[in-house]
Amino acid sequence: MDRQLQISLIFLPFFIIAGCGYHLVGWDSSLPTHIQSIAIPLFSNKSIEPGIEHELTARVREEFITDGRLKVVEEDRADTILSGEINRYSLIPLSFDSQDNVTEYRVEMEISVKLKDIKDTLLINQMLDSKWDYEVKRELTSTEERRISAIKYASRDFARRLVNIVIGGF
Fold first, then answer.
1. 153, burial (CB in 10 Å: exposed 0-12, middle 13-18, buried 19+)
2. What does the angle CA 121 – CA 126 – CA 127 come to, to the nearest 5 degrees?
3. What is the CATH class of 29-168?
């Protein structure tokens, strides 16, 4: 086999993939091209857990900033507005020791989100949930720190999925 044919065969899979409409995730957007910015006001909180809306909103803003495909701006300068509402927060025992003491909990949150453009057209209206498990320690302060960390991790997981939904359309 001659050298030119060998080189052609090496690059053939790349040309096939490129011709199939393949694209790298994270480099494209399913949003209309005129949408370049997003405002993310503080999510509302209808749950029994006070203050978690601050953590959740901060993680969502952080993920959009990190992603970089939409610029996070104030509402009066935004092409879109992402609003959210924490409908439910639950702390669910998952496992117990031989004395029926809880050894593991799950933090669960149910969050509804809406994305509207500046003409008030609803682009996304979806209910999402997020959860994170954590182990109980004997020291009460350590267990509380783990619960707070679980809320942070669940919020970050939610934010990452939300960015994929808003920008990637899935």
1. middle
2. 150
3. alpha beta
Predicted pLDDT at 15:
47
Q: What confidence tens digit (pLDDT) does each residue in 64-97 have?
A: 999 999 999 999 999 999 999 999 999 999 999 9
Where along the chain do its domains lie?
29-168
Collect all residues with Cβ–Cβ distance below 8 Å to 29 and sequence separation of at least 6: 69, 70, 167, 168
**8 Å CB contact between 69 and 27:** no
Cα–Cα dist 23/17, whole Å: 9
Q: Which two tokens stand for residue 5?
A: 């044919």
34 Cβ neighbours under 8 A, 6+ residues apart: 79
